């Protein structure tokens, strides 16, 4: 029995992957050059949070926790979607308010 992989779908997948990688590299370059200050600050905060969380757990424990969360959170969301959505909407509104204050007090004073 011979295994055959068609060329066309493979080339389409490679093309799509190349496009996505180029977009990711462009975003990373933009963040690294501080052109988009919002993404730059968000990436700094995200990396800072990851470093703090990383000090609390060993890598294997963190990997196990992420694995469990990846497999349980979607199921719990589907089960309790009606209760979670209003709370998440309120949280997003509050986060946007805090970000607007942060942008007005801090980010607007940083020269571009």
Automatic annotation (TrEMBL):
<dbReference type="GO" id="GO:0009617">
    <property type="term" value="P:response to bacterium"/>
</dbReference>
<dbReference type="InterPro" id="IPR045064">
    <property type="entry name" value="Reticulon-like"/>
</dbReference>
<dbReference type="GO" id="GO:0005789">
    <property type="term" value="C:endoplasmic reticulum membrane"/>
</dbReference>
<keyword id="KW-0472">Membrane</keyword>
<feature type="transmembrane region" description="Helical">
    <location>
        <begin position="45"/>
        <end position="70"/>
    </location>
</feature>
<protein>
    <recommendedName>
        <fullName>Reticulon-like protein</fullName>
    </recommendedName>
</protein>
<dbReference type="Pfam" id="PF02453">
    <property type="entry name" value="Reticulon"/>
</dbReference>
<feature type="domain" description="Reticulon">
    <location>
        <begin position="1"/>
        <end position="112"/>
    </location>
</feature>
<keyword id="KW-0256">Endoplasmic reticulum</keyword>
<keyword id="KW-1133">Transmembrane helix</keyword>
<keyword id="KW-0812">Transmembrane</keyword>
<dbReference type="InterPro" id="IPR003388">
    <property type="entry name" value="Reticulon"/>
</dbReference>
């Amino acid at each position: 029995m011979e295994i055959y992989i068609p060329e066309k779908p493979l080339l389409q997948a490679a093309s799509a992957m190349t496009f996505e990688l180029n977009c990711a590299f462009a975003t990373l370059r933009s963040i690294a050059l501080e052109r988009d200050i919002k993404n730059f600050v968000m990436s700094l905060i995200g990396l800072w949070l990851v470093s703090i969380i990383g000090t609390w757990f060993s890598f294997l424990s963190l990997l196990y926790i992420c694995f469990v969360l990846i497999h349980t959170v979607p199921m719990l969301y589907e089960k309790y979607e009606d209760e979670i959505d209003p709370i998440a909407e309120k949280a997003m509104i509050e986060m946007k308010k805090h970000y607007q204050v942060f942008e007005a007090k801090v980010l607007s004073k940083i020269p571009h």
